[in-house]
Write a sequence for this structure.
C-alpha cells in the first residue's frame, strides 16, 4: 500500500487499491456528476477503510476553502446541555459533507467581536455560527459587510438579511401565561433573558400580551435573568417570594433558572403546585425529573444545531437567504394536570 511521507493514506493509496487513476479517485470523493455511483461507492468504501483524510492545507491551497465551520460560543452561558447539544446538532448536519466543526470559545469578559474578527480576517473557517444574538448585532453587521457566510441562533432587527434559526419565545411566553391563567393564577412574574438579547424582547412581549389578554397582573422581577448564576437567581427569587404581593405563577426562560426558582420557593416553605405554579422551557429531561409538578415546554438545541449548520452551508452554496430561515414553534409537552394523583394511578402487582 502506498502512503504519504508521514504514513497517512493519500489519493495514491486509494488509487492503488481500487485500480483507478488518482484524478478519478479525487473526483469520486468530490461527488463529481460524471463519475458513476458504483465507482463513488467503491472509492468511498476504500477511503473509509484506510482512514483517508484530505490534506487540509492542500485543499485550502487549491480551492481557498478550509472546509471548516466555526461555532462561536460564550463558555460562561447556559447550563443544562446547551453547548453539548448545539455541537451535537451541528456535527450531525455536517456528517457526510466535507465540513467539520471547530468550537471557537470566548468568555463573557471578552469582546465577542474579537472572535468573529479573528475567523474572518484569518479565513480560518468558511462559515460562522453565532448565538446570543442582539437586535442590532455588531457581529452580524460586520459579517454582512465582509460578505462572510454565517448563521445566527436568534433573529435580529435587520429583517431577513441573513440566515437564522430561532425558537418562538413569544409563543412560549403566551402559552405559559395561558396555562397559568387556566390554573387560576392571577399574579405572574417572568424570569427572562438578559435585556440586551433579541429573544428577551420576544419573550417579554409574549408575556405582556398574555397577561393583558387574560386580565392578570405582572409582578416585576427586574435585575434578574436566566443567564445569571443559579445561586443569584435563587436569592433574588427568595426576595421576590417574600413580598406581600408575591407572584402565584412564574414563567422561566430556562430549565436551570426553574430549578433555582423551585429551590427558592421550597426554602420559603411553599409547595410547587399549591401556592405557586411554574412554567419553564427545558432542553433536557432532567428538568421534569427534578420536579414532576413543573409545566414544561421543550426547546430542542440539537434541532437548532442542525438547522444552523444547514443554513450556513446553504449560504456557502449560494442558496437564496430567504430559504435559510427556520422557526421552532413550541408546545406544552409536560402538563402536571394530566398526571392523576398517586392514589388514582394504576398500581403494579403480580
Amino acid at each position: 500500500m502506498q502512503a504519504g511521507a508521514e504514513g497517512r493514506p493519500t489519493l495514491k493509496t486509494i488509487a492503488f487499491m481500487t485500480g483507478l487513476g488518482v484524478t478519478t479517485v479525487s473526483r469520486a470523493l468530490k461527488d463529481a456528476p460524471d463519475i458513476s455511483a458504483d465507482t463513488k461507492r467503491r472509492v468511498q468504501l476504500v477511503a473509509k477503510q484506510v482512514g483517508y483524510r484530505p490534506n487540509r492545507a492542500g485543499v485550502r491551497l487549491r480551492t481557498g476553502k478550509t472546509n471548516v465551520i466555526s461555532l462561536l460560543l460564550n463558555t460562561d452561558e447556559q447550563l443544562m446541555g446547551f453547548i453539548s447539544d448545539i455541537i451535537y446538532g451541528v456535527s450531525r448536519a455536517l456528517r457526510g459533507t466535507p465540513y467539520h466543526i471547530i468550537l471557537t470559545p470566548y468568555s463573557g469578559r471578552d469582546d465577542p467581536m474579537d472572535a468573529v474578527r479573528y475567523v474572518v480576517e484569518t479565513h480560518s473557517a468558511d462559515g460562522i455560527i453565532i448565538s446570543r444574538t442582539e437586535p442590532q448585532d455588531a457581529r452580524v453587521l460586520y459579517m454582512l459587510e465582509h460578505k462572510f457566510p454565517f448563521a445566527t441562533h436568534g433573529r435580529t432587527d435587520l429583517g431577513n438579511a441573513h440566515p437564522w434559526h430561532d425558537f418562538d419565545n413569544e409563543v412560549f411566553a403566551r402559552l405559559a401565561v395561558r396555562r397559568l391563567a387556566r390554573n387560576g393564577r392571577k399574579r405572574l412574574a417572568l424570569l427572562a433573558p438578559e435585556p440586551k438579547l433579541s429573544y428577551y424582547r420576544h419573550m417579554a412581549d409574549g408575556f405582556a400580551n398574555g397577561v393583558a389578554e387574560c386580565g392578570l397582573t405582572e409582578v416585576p422581577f427586574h435585575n434578574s435573568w436566566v443567564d445569571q448564576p443559579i445561586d443569584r437567581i435563587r436569592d433574588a427569587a427568595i426576595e421576590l417570594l417574600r413580598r406581600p404581593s408575591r407572584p402565584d405563577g412564574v414563567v422561566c426562560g430556562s430549565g436551570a433558572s426553574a430549578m433555582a426558582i423551585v429551590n427558592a420557593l421550597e426554602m420559603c416553605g411553599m409547595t410547587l403546585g399549591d401556592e405557586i405554579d411554574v412554567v419553564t422551557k427545558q432542553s433536557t429531561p432532567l428538568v421534569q425529573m427534578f420536579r414532576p409538578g413543573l409545566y414544561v415546554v421543550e426547546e430542542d438545541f440539537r434541532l437548532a444545531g442542525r438547522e444552523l449548520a444547514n443554513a450556513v452551508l446553504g449560504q456557502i452554496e449560494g442558496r437564496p437567504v430567504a430559504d435559510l430561515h427556520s422557526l421552532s414553534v413550541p408546545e406544552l409537552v409536560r402538563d402536571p394536570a394530566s398526571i392523576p394523583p398517586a392514589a388514582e394511578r394504576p398500581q403494579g402487582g403480580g
Notes: The chain has three domains: 1-53, 68-167+301-327, 169-299. The radius of gyration is 25 Å.
